[in-house]
């Protein structure tokens, strides 16, 4: 019993340590530096809210959807439309490798996010 509890606890700690979380203030600084304050009419405050709702600030989050597509990164960008994951059909509108959207420097994901909100629907694409 004790051994099972210990293994479960260690497994939880390992899973938690593998998440790449970014502090919301650090995220806001990067977003501001990349000119997202006011971009397409969205305030700087909108972007961290989106990141929290989509990934809880987890840069490395990958989520599989019922249709076989995957969502990547802090903004959970979908592989069916926006990036190429080499697993399923993709329109690859952002011309990005989906794995690049998991990078801690955030430049690829910010570039793709700008393309998404510049198109029809804006932030409603999420």
Structure overview:
The protein is mainly alpha-helical. It has one domain (20-125): Lysozyme (Orthogonal Bundle), CATH 1.10.530. The chain contains four helices and three strands. The protein is globular, with a radius of gyration of 16 Å. The termini are far apart.
Low-confidence stretches: 1-17
Order of helices and strands: HHHEEEH
CATH fold-level topology: Lysozyme
Structural class: mainly alpha
Task: Figure out the total of helices.
Answer: 4
Overall shape: globular
Broad CATH class: Mainly Alpha
Beta percentage is 5-15%
How do the strands of the widest beta sheet line up side by side?
Answer: 1-2-3
Largest sheet: 3 strands, antiparallel
Radius of gyration: 16 Å
Multimeric organization: single chain
List keywords for this structure.
disordered N terminus; 3-stranded antiparallel beta sheet; 39% helix; Lysozyme; 126 residues; mainly alpha
Describe the structure concisely:
This protein is mainly alpha-helical and 126 residues long.
């Amino acid at each position: 019993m004790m051994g099972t509890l210990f293994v479960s606890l260690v497994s939880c700690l390992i899973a938690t340590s593998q998440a790449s979380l970014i502090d919301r203030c650090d995220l806001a600084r990067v977003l501001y530096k990349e000119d997202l304050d006011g971009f397409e009419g969205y305030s700087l405050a909108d972007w961290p809210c989106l990141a929290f709702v989509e990934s809880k600030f987890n840069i490395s989050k990958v989520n599989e959807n019922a249709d076989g597509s995957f969502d990547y990164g802090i903004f959970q960008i979908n592989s069916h439309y926006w990036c190429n994951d080499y697993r399923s059909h993709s329109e690859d509108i952002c011309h990005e490798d989906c794995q690049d959207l998991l990078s801690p420097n955030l430049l690829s994901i910010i570039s793709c996010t700008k393309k998404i909100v510049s198109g029809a629907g804006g932030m409603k694409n999420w």
